[in-house]
Specification:
It is built from eight helices and no strands. By secondary structure, it is an all-alpha fold.
């Protein structure tokens, strides 16, 4: 596809963008901004985003995307509960931290399990129920998103690596499927995810130093 054709498809796609897609996109951007700040409002704004995208995906016969956003909805509720928990001293129970070897193993296995499940499911469903599916690409975007959402609920820094992978995969994926504004949305999310990663790495180091200080003080 030549550059002129891509530009024309972009213009045509923007004209076809519905108000529901605009609301979904802007609420998603706000949600990611809150997640970068470790603000619990990430979840109510995220629920608005995912609810609309479940509807839009089903309407467009995008089964992979619909499943991702349904999962986002469930995990948003789970994350909201987890981020709200405090101990007796009113400190947050879950804090931003780096993954150790055990958690790296968990997330890789988590990704692999979802990737192969979604890939084989979409390969089967593509023939009669989901003609718009691109199994290998949809499975990758979905599995990385599933992993990122789970790790974000646990406040693991590495969640942003998975989000970056999701965004990179989703930019061309949605463009091809004529959700041009959503494609632009994922480009914006990619930039925000890079800043989010930087911010969470800084906070994780701060938490690590604080724990080390408290440990030394206790000794």
């Amino acid at each position: 596809m030549e550059l002129q054709e891509i530009w024309q498809q972009f213009l045509d796609g923007m004209k076809e963008t519905t108000w529901l897609e605009y609301v979904a996109v802007f609420s998603g951007i706000v949600s990611v901004w809150f997640s970068r700040k470790e603000n619990i409002l990430v979840y109510p704004t995220g629920l608005l985003n995912t609810t609309f995208y479940v509807y839009l995906s089903i309407k467009g016969s995008l089964i992979g995307e619909a499943s991702v956003n349904f999962y986002y909805t469930v995990m948003s509720i789970y994350g909201w509960i987890l981020w709200s928990k405090r101990d007796k001293e009113q400190h947050h129970v879950v804090n931003i931290e780096f993954s150790d070897k055990r958690w790296w193993t968990y997330q890789i296995l988590f990704f692999a399990a979802f990737y192969f499940t979604i890939f084989f499911s979409l390969t089967y469903l593509k023939k009669s129920f989901a003609p718009g599916a691109i199994p290998f690409a949809d499975a990758f975007a979905s599995a990385t998103a599933f992993t990122g959402m789970w790790l974000m609920a646990k406040k693991k820094v590495e969640s942003w690596y998975w989000w970056i992978a999701t965004n990179i995969a989703s930019i061309p994926l949605y463009f091809i499927k004529h959700y041009v504004f959503t494609s632009v949305y994922y480009l914006i999310l990619l930039v925000m995810a890079i800043f989010g990663l930087t911010e969470w790495m800084r906070r994780a180091r701060k938490v690590k130093k604080q724990k080390a200080f408290e440990f030394e003080k206790a000794i």
